[in-house]
Amino acid sequence: MTDATLPPPAVSPEEAARHAQKKARIKQARDRMMTEKTGEKGLVIVHTGPGKGKSSAAFGMIFRMIAHDMPCAVVQFIKGARQTGERALIQRHFAHLCQFHTMGEGFTWETQDKARDIAAARAAWDKGKALIRDPAIRMVLLDEINIALRYGYLDPTEVAAFLQGEKPQMTHVVLTGRNAPPELLEIADLATEMALVRHPFRDGIKAQPGVEF
């Protein structure tokens, strides 16, 4: 007999009744809480921290937008010419719903040209602002913008002020990258810090397609 065909464990009538009562109380509390949550707004969402998954989680939201036929856009800071699975899929199948702009020239240790890196970050931010200002676009992902802020290529006060003052009311903006500055965390509606527990790179495993890119 396989695990799939094993009979369910026996539960006494008393235990079943206690379980049903407990879950009924939880459902009542949840239903009451949900009736109080009726507002909608465009969110400022920050994914930061040393752990892996910041961009992956953000692209998960981009694909949700696509699935709901909601126009969206991606602006990639820092990341350069290397093709990624997300970009290939979006450009091949969903370009009508999602604009994709890779504005970086690679990580700073690859370019080794600070003036060029600053110029690329400014151009990416200008593109990001133009996309955010477009009320037809429901979500804009600013991928790895926190890295540009950390290196001083962009002013976090300027970015925070723009998001507070010029972002359309129903537009979501997602900002990724480790070391998000306090100015962004202060105005964020949703901020998540990815913690690093283990990483295969420490064991000599290189970045692999389908996992990292």
Annotation, overall tally of beta strands: 6
CATH homologous superfamily of the domain at 42-107 and 134-195 - what is it? P-loop containing nucleotide triphosphate hydrolases
| CATH fold description of the domain at 42-107 and 134-195 | Rossmann fold
H and E order? HEHEHEHHEHHEHE
Rg calculated over all Cα atoms: 22 Å
CATH class of the domain at 42-107 and 134-195: Alpha Beta
Q: Helical stretch count?
A: 8
Please estimate the helix content: 40-55%
User: If you average the pLDDT, what whole number results?
Assistant: 88
Enzyme class: transferase
Subcellular location: Cytoplasm
Pathway: Cofactor biosynthesis; adenosylcobalamin biosynthesis; adenosylcobalamin from cob(II)yrinate a,c-diamide: step 2/7
Function: Required for both de novo synthesis of the corrin ring for the assimilation of exogenous corrinoids. Participates in the adenosylation of a variety of incomplete and complete corrinoids.
Would you give an account of this structure?
The model has no long low-confidence stretch (mean pLDDT 88). It contains eight helices and six strands; from the N terminus they run H-E-H-E-H-E-H-H-E-H-H-E-H-E. It has a domain of 128 residues: Rossmann fold (3-Layer(aba) Sandwich). It has a six-stranded parallel beta sheet with strand order 3-2-4-5-1-6, with helices on both faces. The chain has 213 residues and is an alpha/beta fold. The protein starts with 12 loop residues before the first helix and ends in a 20-residue tail after the last strand. Pathway: Cofactor biosynthesis; adenosylcobalamin biosynthesis; adenosylcobalamin from cob(II)yrinate a,c-diamide: step 2/7.
